[in-house]
Amino acid sequence: MTSGLWELVLKGVWVTIQLLVCSALLGAAVSFVVGVARTHRLWIVRFLAGVYTEVFRGTSALVMIFWVYFVLPIAFGWQLVPLWAGTLALGLTYGAYGSEIVRGALNAVDPAQKEGGIALSFTPWQRLRLILLPQAVPEMIPPFSNLLVELLKGTALVSIMGMGDLAFSGNLVRLALQESAEIYTIVLLIYFVIAFVLTRGMRGLERKLKAGTGKPVGSTPDQELDRPQTTGVGGAVA
Amino acid sequence: MKWDWSAVSGFMPHLWDGLLVTVQILALGSLISFALGLVWALLMRVPSRWVTWPVGVVTEFVRNTPLLVQLFFLFYVLPEWGLTFSALTTGVFAIGLHYSTYTMQVYRAGIEAVPVGQWEAATALNLPLHRTWTAVILPQAVRRVVPALGNYVISMLKDTPMVMAITVLEMLGQARLYSQEHFQFTEPLTVIGVAFIVMSYLASLALRALERRLAH
């Protein structure tokens, strides 16, 4: 491979990372808002959040991307920059999976903790911020780590829409060289390295957050069977 | 926003064609992933590093890299090595292989969840190793893992549109083709979006019912 082609691959890596960071931020925001809404005391809020989750988990991420790219501009007149269109589609879809993680972790907090908050006449917002989230967030980290790797894999989908990410630059190099084994091996290895760095980083974060809660780090076989499905519907959650 | 019902009815025959292909991919992909995942899980229990280490690395690699790039790899590289398969076969194999690295973890957890007393009882009854596995351990392990496997079938359903990228005309491929021929994007894409939501919702309901039955 020539240096020009390497430059193409590096540009692809950069686009993939930008897309990953943007859609992870949007996805995290959606996860927390929808996940907390699913534990709200008003049934209509819980119901709407549940509908959101079912709809966005129900469609395929790729169908969602097609919809954002082709239907939004025609039907609503919103023409988005490719990066934002990809971020929107991926963030909304993976945010729906993430909301199940947040809901599961919030429900797993000992009810006595919540009752203690009520007894001390905390407002609902104070209970959430000072009691529930500090205990729930460390439990969310391992499933969120899995979801982040799924999101990384999901970013490759935007290459079908012609956005110049890592998978797309792989295709360009294949066309330029008329040879595919080498470039696709390189592309797969780069994705693997990014995923490895992400999981290591998340493990460090888990250790840091759990330092104050006195709970063990890592997963047990039982948790593996109930592992929140990152791409499945109706998975048992935490 | 303009909605044209004639485009919907015009697209419906294509939707059924695409649905048939999607279901085929799903059925064959599930079979491959169930079988191959069990093979990986059993290989990981072989008491030798020379087996577990390569299997662990390969499955970890497949699990953490995008299915889409794996599809491209198989679709473009295998012919260079003299192995030519149809796009559909390649797609089914890629999906089956990708998901086998997930089902492998499910099987592993299911096998580890079998109480150790069952192993000891098999030893006490002097059962040969293959009888211990086929008559004692696996029947109990598989029962535990069915719901988790079902979840991965639903995930697989939502990953089938990716094979469109290697020219297979499943539901999304049909929708794209129809859109480009008739310059109507809204209706076909919305129809298959709804079709996916309905299918995965029904599948999750069926799975929950199955889970309740197996719980007894």
TrEMBL record, chain A:
Q: Which residues form the ABC transmembrane type-1 domain?
A: 13-199
What superkingdom does the record give? Bacteria
User: Which terms are listed as keywords in the entry?
Assistant: Amino-acid transport, Cell membrane, Membrane, Transmembrane, Transmembrane helix, Transport
Q: Does the keyword Membrane apply?
A: yes
Q: How does it sit in the membrane?
A: Multi-pass membrane protein
Q: Where in the cell is it found?
A: Cell membrane
Keyword Cell membrane annotated = yes
Q: Where is the signal peptide?
A: none
Q: What is its main location?
A: membrane
Q: Where are the transmembrane segments?
A: 12-37, 49-70, 183-201
| Region feature (Disordered) | 211-238
* Family that this chain belongs to: Belongs to the binding-protein-dependent transport system permease family.
Identify this protein by name.
Ectoine/hydroxyectoine ABC transporter permease subunit EhuC
What organism is the protein native to?
Streptomyces tibetensis
Annotated gene: ehuC
